[in-house]
Amino acid sequence: MPRPEKEWWGFKPAGMHACKWIRDRYHSKGPKSLLLKWHIHSLAKGYSRLTVRMLYYLLCSRRGYSPGKNFYKKVVYHSTIMRRVDEALAKKFRDPTREFTLPPFAFKKAVVFVEKDSIKHFIADIAARYRLPIQVLRGYGSLTCFQKALARAKKKGVQVILYLGDLDESGIDIQRCMEKEMDSGLGAQVIRLAITWAQVAKYKPPSKPVNKKDSRAKKFIEKFGNRGYEIESLRPRTLRRIVEEGFKKYLPKDFLEAAQKMETAVKAVRPITERFRRIVEKEAFKLVKLDWSPEDIARTLSVKYGLRKT
Question: For the chain: N or C, fewer Cβ within 10 A?
Answer without folding.
Answer: C
